Amino acid sequence: MADAEEPMAVDGGHCDISCDWDGRWNHVRKFLERPGPFTHPDFEPSTEALSGFRLIHVVDMDTIDVSNLNRQFLFRPKDVGRPKAEVAADFINGRIPGCKVVPHFKKIQDFDESFYRQFHIIVCGLDSVIARRWMNGMLISLLSYEDGILDPSSIIPLIDGGTEGFKGNARVILPGMTACIDCTLELYPPQINFPMCTIASMPRLPEHCIEYARILQWPKEKPFGEISLDGDNPEHIQWVFDKAQERAAEFNITGVTYRLTQGVVKRIIPAVASTNAVIAAACATEVFKIATSAYIPLNNYLVFNDVDGLYTYTFEAERKENCSACSQVPQDLQFPPSAKLQEVLEYLTENASLQMKSPAITTTLEGKNKTLYLQSVKSIEERTRPNLCKTLKELGLSDGQELAVADVTTPQTVLFKLNFTT
Amino acid sequence: MAATKANKEQKYDRQLRLWGDHGQESLENAHVCLINATATGTEILKNLVLPGIGAFTIVDGHIVSGEDYQHTVFVKHLTIGFILQNRAQAATELLQELNSDVSGNFVEEVGNCVTMIPQKKLLLIEHTVIESHPDNALEDLRLDQPFSEFTNHIQSYDLENMEKKDHSHTPWIIVVAKYLDKWLSEHNCQAPKTYREKEAFKLFIREGILKNENGVPEDEENFEEAIKNVNTALNPTKIPSAVEDLFNSQQCSNITSQTPSFWVMLRAVKEFVHNEGNGNLPVRGTIPDMIADSQKFINLQNVYREKAMQDAAAVSKHVEYLLQSVGKSPENIPEKDIKLFCKNASFLRVVRCRSLAEEYNVDSVNKDEIASCMDNPDSEMVFYLMLRAVDRFYQQHSRYPGVYNYQVEEDISRLKLCVNSLLQEYSLNVNIKDDYIHEFCRYGAAEPHTVAAFLGGSAAQEAIKIISHQFVPFNNTFIYNAMSQTSATLHL
Questions:
Q1: Is residue A50 situated within a structural domain?
Q2: A222 and A178 housed in the same domain
Q3: Do both A247 and A289 map to the same domain?
Q4: Are A304 and A377 within one domain?
Q5: Is residue A15 within 8 angstroms of chain B, CB to CB?
Q6: A59 by DSSP, 3-state: which?
Q7: What are the residue numbers of the active site of A?
Q8: Is the ipTM above a cut-off of 0.90?
Q9: Which strands, in side-by-side order, build the sheet including B55-59?
Q10: Based on the domain organization, do A261 and A361 belong to the same domain?
Q11: Quick one: pLDDT at residue B82?
């Protein structure tokens, strides 16, 4: 926890007295002014901590869609098409006196350390594991160590929440101290895609027919020119739906509907107001606890499920000793010198603890930086592609060689150490 | 009109994928009443308005106070002085904003507020659920008791004399069925039961994998699937005990003209089980996806589908007969309802809750549940007991403990007296730590918004479960502890 001498300053202090009216803080006052048997051992009751959260920055790259309105209650039908961050900020700024929300209609990756360093707490409601890992990596990169000892004032707590239908989870991460996103990567099983041969020649389910239209027919027939398929464009979905129906008819498969088509193309996850309210509430409770030190924060993972009754499970996710993100230990890569670079690439993407998306591998050879393989830039991909078929020995790599791997899943490169096996 | 319908489908798309159009319809036909627009109350209502509840009415006689503005999302603060607005009206206006499809009303009357800190109670006498949507349901394949259409179908397969392409793309269900057939004829009609027998059976199947000219087994994924699924595939088909219990219940045995359709259909299924079903429920009719070529898979799927339709038709006849026997027409229970019922026959649930009177009555209080939970003095049960004690405090002092700072110290001993009298009255031999009594005085009846929001979300979804009759409601007391982020469901 942060040093008691440097309290979490959540009050931006820019608002005048008229923002507070009689009774406004009565509900939280009692928690913050009165000592009690269950409070955090370091908690000192006071009247100073008595403000709401005054300054909040919101980062969101999305615009509002009609389908958000069933649960995202800061938005109204008139807001459809506008950036979420801006509408949310307008709503709160207009409705909650004294609170200032600064919107950023951007991707989280558009900002660097100088931006994230200014915050006391980060809360995430992201919709992908990749984004979570990125934020996780960013906060880890802000940690400073002196003589191998972590400086607690460099820790920015991360509170992460997510939902799927009637299930959800909330977790508290103290980077460098508690389990991080990558420590528990196995909790997020990799997304399963249908095998290509099933889609191409042996469809059995309506989903197979839809994927056939999306993956094979669209690139071939280019129905709207060179544009790639846009799941938010009803005309595109209609085209996929029609083609999927044709294919289904060919194979006597029933069940292709517009709704299913949309769901498969956009990888839609069902969502309701209630589950999101529960998880958001759990996250907000943790922010309150951490900011005020009034109670001990969640340690450190909560799972919620209300399919059958109401079920919660709280446990302490453990740090992984050799976590690729937070352990500061170079990762071990065990391969025989005769292994091809392609095998290393496959390991980086398929291993459950790494799950990289398109890793770029570089190393130092004869004092110079050398790119072994990089996918994201076409010209470099073409130049380095032949390396995939070469063995590690042929590439000039030796036992103990350090490889630096960059990937979208992390803002910093991950260091690997090559360990030759016989 | 069409535009609104399409717009609604778009707006509600993400939730329609959970409870379907029919679930949404039930929701839109419902009218919910909220007593007291507190933080928790407005949060619950928000999570009902957003998904499109038909209508709501708030009953509340209070004027908005400074404290209520802590949940300012639902109560607007006007900076130029206060307008003394009734809380029900204020909340109605702002909740109404969330969804124009919903109609909101309010009544300015004082309702009796019982709950304060996180506790939810479910008070239903009997709630039936056809679509419980279980997370991990076992498939209904009937491999141990194959129906005749299935047996005929697998006869058309001759695994020994198939081309490789066909052999590798035969559905695993058929592979297991064929090998099971052979096994039975070689083992005196005894199916593999023990671990060793099942392992031997798996080996038996593995030996059936085609080999190339060098004797090396080919890559036949469908056979690997068959082997992997042997354990569950050989599970004996039987009626779940929960469903058997329902068959034996009073409502099922005594069908009258007042009987709800759930019980009429259940009775019809019971009749089916004893007749056409030969001791089994109607076939569900679905099979999981598996490696196979399209035609073989579709053909197999159709065998199950057609059998399911046949069984549902038989159940239908029983429904008709039952309805007629109590003077009602068969139209009372539509075909599609019967089909849905049959498809979910293994997953039917009935939730019965005790009444508040039973819970509170000295003679029927659930002492066992309370005592066994309190073996751990920090179990969530302690909060239930504290809440009951706090209610007692309110009755005696017309206020909650510790509302003002100067009250905190003295109220601790007053609250302790309430706790002791409660325990005594119910002859509960449990120990409540002083820490909890202190903590409840410290709270001073505060309703932090994040805690209200957690309960608001969970309670709203329980209401939706009850309205839609989908998914299973809790039974009957839910306690949430925000300090430790833990919860418990108590059966009281």
A1: yes
A2: no
A3: no
A4: no
A5: no
A6: strand
A7: 197
A8: yes
A9: B31-35, B55-59, B103-107
A10: no
A11: 47
